Fold Transglutaminase family protein.
Amino acid sequence: MELLQEKSGLEAYLVADHVIDHHHPVVRATAGRLRDQAPGPYDYAEAAFEFVRDTIPHSYDSGDLRVTWRASDVLAGRTGICYAKAHALAALLRAHGIPTGLCYQRLADDDGSDPVVHGLIAMWLPESGRWARQDPRGNKAGVNAQFSLNEERLAWVPRPEYGESDYPILYAAPAPPVLKALLEAVDRPHLSRLLPTAL
């Protein structure tokens, strides 16, 4: 799928803000440790992806009631849903100078009911010369997302027959309905009632 940049150029996909706060000491320290282990851009990107995917449990899987949304809080608290984990990975990648955007899918149950917007990221590395989507949601039974710059290996492939789809827009900052839900939720059960069903 061709991703359409919300902002022209790559600079907007390197910015630090109040969500993707890669200027924060927690983000910088985590990025520094990963950089020591994997100094090259490709190796660093893969290490950052695996760190977020594997060491920060998805709060629905773990039962954690906390709602995190700021990248530094996700890294410090080691919890978050897909959007939050995407924010954390975007911050780690941007901290290493790798342009990173936020992208989304619309997913549903096996009968097409209960649609929800799912969050992931896309990164730009010279090795690929294009945007490559990655899904740091976290693996479990039936979910096996892997780092790849060529063939996508995401958690889910949308099924159009169930109303599922990929959104082509590559956001420099979180999509407003996503951030609104995260900011308004008092805990994870409340968040589940606020999640956007479409963008």
